[in-house]
Amino acid sequence: MTINLKKLILPTMMMSSFFSGLTHAAAEDDPVLWKVMIDQLEYRDASGDNPVVWESQAWLGQDRNKLWFKTEGERVNGFTENAEAQLLYSKAVSPYWDFQAGVRQDFEPSPERSWAAIGFQGLAPYFFEIDTALFIGGSGRTALRLEAEYELMLTQRLILSPEIEINLHGKNDEATGTGSGLSNMELGLRLRYEIRRGSGPYIGINRENKYGNTADYARDEGEDTGDTQFVVGFRATF
Questions:
Q1: What is the pLDDT of residues 78-112, one digit of tens each?
Q2: Is the dihedral of CA 24, 25, 27, 33 positive or negative?
Q3: What's the pTM?
């Protein structure tokens, strides 16, 4: 039996070229991208010390799979009083929601705490931006955080943003001044003038409250359990 090599090789080459083209097209349709968002970089005029606060996040990846980095903290009189960072793998589970899992490290206040993190981030109905996470730490420590933000466009450049953050803990952690149950809640209202989409200066008002044992720990340290702060800051997206 005679084997025609041309008849075997030519279709193989054509199939190889076809799948190579598909792979190249897929790479072009779903490229590796990145984004950096400085959500808050602000000075707060408080009743006591006036802190500088930051909250930022960034991601690198493709449409369905990304690596996220989140950080937030507070500095007072040149000293960092609160600081945390999260490194998360993010998987799209619907057009508007991502499932995220990874680690969180609290650097301040001392002692440092390490957590495993799982949660969801996305866009709820009526365009509420939601970020919720469950944290599991050592010695049976657990925490739950819920953040929500809404952007109301007053004009094409003037944006009003109400925000809320709620933190709950499963047990007392006296060393860090954190009590079980509802530990603290933060409400904010910021008015931003956008120089370009996602970036611009803002002013606003922020209200912080501590509850339960967290409030008791604060009183023991001579600290306020609630404070209303006027803020001025800058938001940027790259």
A1: 999 999 999 999 999 999 999 999 999 999 999 99
A2: positive
A3: 0.86
CA distances, 227 to each of 49, 109, 207, 230 (Å): 11, 19, 6, 10
At 223, list the tokens: 């600290």
**CB proximity list for 105: less than 8 A, separation 6 or greater:** 84, 85, 86, 112, 113, 114, 115
Dihedral sign, CA of 219, 223, 228, 232? negative
